[in-house]
Amino acid sequence: MNPQDALDHYRILTSMLAPALLMAATGSLLISANNRLARVVDRLRAIIAQLEGGDEMSRPELEAQIDRHRRRAHLVLKACQMLYLGLCAFVGTSLALAVDALAGFRLPYLPTGLAVVGVIGLLVASVNLGREVVLSVRSFDRELDAELARRRR
Question: Which helix (H) or strand (E) holds 58?
Answer without folding.
Answer: none
